[in-house]
Design goal:
Its EC number is 2.3.3.1. GO terms for molecular function: citrate synthase activity. Pathway: Carbohydrate metabolism; tricarboxylic acid cycle; isocitrate from oxaloacetate: step 1/2. With about 170 residues, the protein is an all-alpha fold. The chain has helices at about 1-5, 10-25, 30-35, 45-60, 70-95, 110-115, 130-140, 150-160, 165-170. Helix 4 (about 45-60) packs antiparallel against helix 5. The longest helix has 26 residues, at about 70-95. The two termini are about 25 Å apart.
Amino acid sequence: CYILLNGEKPTQAQYDEFKTIVTRHTMIHEQITRLFHAFRRDSHPMAVMCGITGALAAFYHDSLDVNNPRHRDIAAFRLLSKMPTMAAMCYKYSIGQPFVYPRNDLSYAGNFLNMMFSTPCEKYEVNPILERAMDRILILHADHEQNASTSTVRTAGSSGANPFACIAAGIA
């Protein structure tokens, strides 16, 4: 993902800093978890994801100026960091299970799998084969050309809309 955002391969120090920043932003504001209850239990998880993603602008309004490079970076890190947490919460909400919060000791893919499939009542060990497969799936999907959702995000972004609304448009 670093390469997609920066256009070059990171040094080890840059990679470590990138990983730390992403890990630091995986939690979502606790009030966002309350928004899930505004949706019906049988709502499609992608519809819920669209609503929750758009709502991020209300919680992170300090980084909405798309003309400010620092704001763009902050918004990108927040989206990259919070998407797995929100996706897992959408899934957990749809099946009636409690939310599982991120763990900073796991990899990006491992953390996502843990939030998706662990429960508070039993320990979940992330299968390293599944973790490696999920990591590769995420890499393959990170840049898959100019599809409909990418076009939608770019169109919304060209109007100067906030990054969270643009991504929500792409999810829709």
